[in-house]
Amino acid sequence: MSFWRTYYHIVWATKNREALITPQNEPRLYGYIVNKAAELGVYVYTINGWIDHVHVVAAIPPKEAVAHVVKTLKGASSHDLNQQYAPNALFAWQRGYGVLSLGSRQLADAVEYVRRQKEHHRDSTTIPWLERDADDDEGPEDPNVMGKPPVPSVREEEVVYNVLGEPPF
Prior knowledge:
Blueprint: E1 7-13, H1 26-39, E2 43-50, E3 53-59, H2 66-85, E4 98-102, H3 104-115, H4 117-123, H5 143-146
Antiparallel strand pairs: 1-3, 1-4, 2-3
């Protein structure tokens, strides 16, 4: 069995940021997402959100692409709500999502932040850049595409591993 620890904080929104997540449909929605994630081999540490978006902290195995997992969770959960739970309602997710990779040291903080989503929104203590809504892909800028200078990067000093002429691993 392979060893892996890949943690992610994923956020996605309802269509047009409409208040589609209600106290009535939230338990079914979140339960469905957790169960569907488990079918993909994804472990959900926590899930929570607000009336117009969902936060998920999960461990996704390397054999699964994050984009595939999110697409599956979004598509299957909206289908379930529309077909099984409320056939006369129209529940939909907005295009896109946000994702941050986490180290094991950040995992507990991310889980706590997500668990307290409703409290954060009620008390206006959200972390703004985790709650953003944008239509555009806000990944790293590419000067050839965006017409803007590239984002400066920080590089660590190069480490010479091949001192003895053999691979390091």
